[in-house]
Write a structure and sequence with these properties.
Elements lengths: L1 H22 L3 H14 L2 E4 L2 E4 L2 E6 L1 H10 L3 H16 L2 E2 L4 E6 L8 E6 L6 H8 L1
Parallel strand pairs: 2-4, 3-5
Antiparallel strand pairs: 1-2, 3-6
Length: 133
């Protein structure tokens, strides 16, 4: 298991270096923002069941989005994978299939990014609200 952890860490460091070159920022900030969004929307259903939103939207400032498109990287999938590992470590249950969707926005309040979350539209809102009770 130690070799797999070392390989995973090496891959994450490679991703971190790529992200830093692409948007001139450490990706840890964006990944941490996704984790905070996830953690702040936890719904404890029972002692053994903790549900979190499954659809995450990351709005990037124009310059960052343009650079990602130009380089052709699949940032959404990488962020989804990272968030999935976080949820697994925390014992979270997703409200449906986990996705992280990246979009361009000229209205990002801090000039860099904004992260929001919710249940995917095809997941019953009644089912999600029932889990909240």
């Amino acid at each position: 298991m130690g070799a797999l952890s070392a390989l995973e860490q090496a891959m994450e460091h490679g991703w971190d270096a790529l992200w830093a070159r692409v948007v001139d920022r450490e990706p840890v900030e964006l990944i941490d923002a996704l984790r905070r969004e996830c953690d702040s929307n936890v719904v404890v259903c029972s002692e053994h069941r903790v549900v979190v939103p499954n659809a995450y939207d990351v709005e990037l400032a124009d310059f960052a989005y343009d650079e990602l498109v130009r380089r052709g990287t699949d940032v959404g999938q990488e962020l989804t994978d990272r968030l999935a590992r976080h949820g697994e470590r925390q014992g979270y249950e997703w409200a449906g299939p986990l996705t992280v969707h990246i979009t361009r926005s000229g209205r990002v309040p801090n000039g860099r990014y904004r992260v929001t979350s919710g249940a995917m539209p095809h997941v019953s809102a009644d089912g999600f609200h029932h889990a909240m009770r």
